[in-house]
Sequence to fold (214 residues):
Amino acid sequence: MSQSERIKIAKRVAEELKEGEAVNLGVGIPTMIPDYLGDKKVFLQSENGLLGMGPTPADEDIDMDLISASKKPVTYEIGASLFDSSDSFKMIRGGHIDVAVLGALQVDETGEVANWAVPGETILGVGGAMDLVAGAKRMIIASTHVSKDGSPKLVSKLTFPSSGKRKADMIVTEHAVFKFREGKMYLVEILSDISIDQLKEITEANFEILEKVK
Fold:
């Protein structure tokens, strides 16, 4: 995936965030979102103990003591708060995070998410994924449409370990926006020049098409 496509996903997710919300950003594409919020005031939370995360610093302003949970350099907004990880997880588990924006390895057609383990492979691990899936009031997935080997990430049924029973509300890829309602997946917007038939070829999950798809 090109950088421009990753930026497109981050920008589209940024449109979904509402003024005044407390938002946790997961690893990967979600970490790009602070750069595309414009003047919208949201409170970005990082599970390593930060509320009030700002956009990416200029190269000359990078301080690696100031990093996100993804170990990326960040800036702090005026009024930002720093606290330990246990307090951060109290916020998440206590239901104080309005939106979690997460990456995914797979999402099934009901909105169930797998984003922490691939059978037979060693990766970083679960981190705060399960807590965010369970604790955030709303969950948006920001992900490439297919994996590096070309296999669909939007599947009929998960084959990777689930991150929890809680379902995603929305997924944004470089090609489309889908929403999940009552266990069904709906195409609500096309983001590339892909046709519906082409989209179905790279999407294993079954989905319905809303009448007013953009």
In short: The chain is about 15% helix and 25% strand.
